[in-house]
Fold:
Amino acid sequence: MATEVKVPTLGESITEATLGTWLKKPGDPVAADEAIASLETDKVALDVPSPVAGVMGEQHVKEGDTVDVGAVIATIEAAGAAVAPPPAPPAGASGAVNPAGPGETPTPQGDENAPVAEGDDEESAHLTLSPAVRRAVLELHVDPSKIKGTGKDGRITKDDVLAAAKAQQAEGGAPAVSAPAPAAPPPSPAPAPRAAAAGERREERVRMTRLRQTIARRLKEAQNTAAMLTTFNDVDMSAVIEARNRYKDLFEKKHGIRLGFMSFFVKAAVLAARDIPAVNASIDGDEIVYHDYMDVSVAVSAPQGLVVPVIRDAQALSFADIEKTIADFGRRAKEGTLTIEEMQGGTFTISNGGVFGSLLSTPIINPPQSAVLGMHRIEERPVVRDGQIVVRPMMYLALSYDHRLIDGREAVTFLVRMKEALEDPTRLLIDL
Structure:
């Protein structure tokens, strides 16, 4: 007897999603609670588990289709039941393309052309390559069987391929051109196959993920709605670096987590917001909503792009609590296990473009929040101290804010308060 697989409840106010990737094909064995498909919502990608053990049966929707909460997307047949194979793709087809925005790592999906090891489920998952990863493997001439995947279930990501290619080049080894290609490259647009001429210009069109569409829509709405302005300041990071170097070993030994820079910035933002509460407020119609708590949204990297989980009640957390929370977010973002609830309801955002090498930027507000802090890379620069030119590790800070709610004086004062706290971290301890 077949068991229906339905779209689960996706969270408050979310009624539909996009079927991003089928993780199982008809006829594949399925364990209870094993993921069979990946859904993309406006906020996050999440897996659909099988309600029972058995064999993957009929798939009622295709990748890229929009599905409602409660809709039946597939059936699970009893173990041993005969399942009709999926229809063969038309001649020349290169397989399903997982919709993903340019530069994103698509969610890994099954592919009949991918080289998988027979009888080894773990290795099969490891070598199930998404289209973007497949292209990277072909272009960089690396052997995917020798790459340790860091994606969900050990799958290889595009970053893994780039790292392997860099390591191969550093070792001086010749490109692994003899390695078996994991899949045929996308077909040439010409009627008959032909080699690409040198200098030929090619294009590829891929469908935007639901998450990317939502990001694009919300950011444009923010530009259209808020009176956005950005103010800047720079911070001498000497004191923070010294404190971190002095206590990082004791900190890790006591709390079991490394002491990073982000906890200093979260604590400094909380301190500054006490003096400038409008930075932690929001506009609701013709009213201003002030919060006596600070829920800080922090941007972390995930396979499908940046996601922004929320550190709840940051004003009540210690340095160790903040670092543990951020580390947990980072780990689960890579695994794809962050929940929708964990990315809702922030009152202020901190985005660290410095980890990618950014020197300066003007971040965009995340509505309904009224401000976002942009951190950037630490760079040694000459500065004047007591009439002398000295070299200091400096960082630019950017605060983008909604001028409808926050005046320029308040925005500048907020950054000055943060600068004072970071250049003299003792202020964070004595609430000064």
Notes: The chain has three domains: 1-87, 98-191+199-225, 227-430. The domain at 227-430 is CATH 3.30.559.10 (Chloramphenicol Acetyltransferase).
